[in-house]
Amino acid sequence: MRKLKELLKDKLSEDELKLVKSSFDIVGSREKAVAIIEIPEELEEKKFLIAEALMKLNKNVKSVLRKVSGRKGELRLREFELLAGDPNTEVLHKENGYILKLDPQKVYFSPREARERMRIAKQVRPGEKVLVMFSGVGPYCIAIAKFQPEVEKVYGIEINRIAHKYAEENVRINKLSHKIVLIEGDVREVCKNYEKFFDRIVMPLPLGGESFLDLAVKCLKPHGYIHFYSWGEEENPYENAIKSVEKFVKRYKIVGKRIVLPYAPRKFKVCVELEVLNG
Q1: Could you report how far apart the first and last alpha carbons of the chain are, in Å?
Q2: Residue 166 pLDDT
Q3: Are residues 204 and 229 in contact, defined by beta-carbon separation less than 8 angstroms?
Q4: Which CATH number fits domain 2-89: 3.30.390.50, 3.30.300.110, 1.10.287.3510, 3.40.50.150?
């Protein structure tokens, strides 16, 4: 980011340079990537200059998208503005030794959670049946099947049809069709068919995920694990998550807590991991 500011120092004032965001996401590969940036209203007139400078510094970046809304709606999508480059923003994203095909304008995906996906995958045990709720383009499913080859099956449920189609293609690309079952549909409807079926459930939806905790408990075997994601304030990041767990889960033990990444100013995405006794 220092190099970006250096490139812009003749085009922006000192005050404007201070407003340039210090981080951004890059989704894609060395061949083609998309940069996703935030630009404050004070820099509205300089947004195209910033985007062009970013592309000069990152030769693999073929498109620059500006966030213009938070994630919203049932599909958790943002609105973007194309500031520079190719309007076709479909890419092949590489992380942890596997490939994910996606378009960040059409599906939910966070490149910042690659390490978290690996962390979860390494906890899965041989012979387990695992459910990933809100599975998107399949990153958690693929990470688990890739790094625990003795998992029995990984099931992914996703309501976004475009994300589901990408997930199907990603499973084929990574040659994991024998380990992953993908289901397009509403988690609440699909899970009615899987009571007491899973050993482990991953719930990577930080806002609203608590309303699915009761369903997750019903889908677990008499003994199982839930990786529950929520959000929390800086002062007590786990408070909201633990209150939700106390409300919806009867017999449990917290076996892990982790701040995953910043979610908003002074707010964090967190993971609380539960061992649940369901018998």
Answers
A1: 53
A2: 98
A3: yes
A4: 3.30.300.110
